[in-house]
Prior knowledge:
Order of helices and strands: HHHHH
Oligomer: single chain
Amino acid sequence: MLGDDPSRVDDWSTARRxxxxxxxxxxxxxxxxxxxxHKLPETIEPLLDSPSAELVAFVKLIxxxxxxxxxxxxxxxPTPEFQEVRRLVDNARLALAHLEKLPGDRVSDNYLMLLxxxxxLPAR
Length: 124
């Protein structure tokens, strides 16, 4: 959205705060719901009609990683085993690899656009 010009580092820092973890989770779950042909908000369904395998793989990892973050931050469970932490780090790297490989098609672009407030858009 902002490009990769290093002179825009201040813009990147500002834009980073535009995204909420909740919105990312909701929009990512819409992708999974779409693959299962579950009902989506009427105004959203046409935007996410045929997600690529790359996008589906990415959002599955995002949902898993976000669940792990929520558990680490808010659920008082024992410290995870080293192997589990390693697996989550590997999955974070894999998610970034999937993100870089998104096809730049309409659905992937719409997904990225919806991350900026998608859950609130159907009401508008």
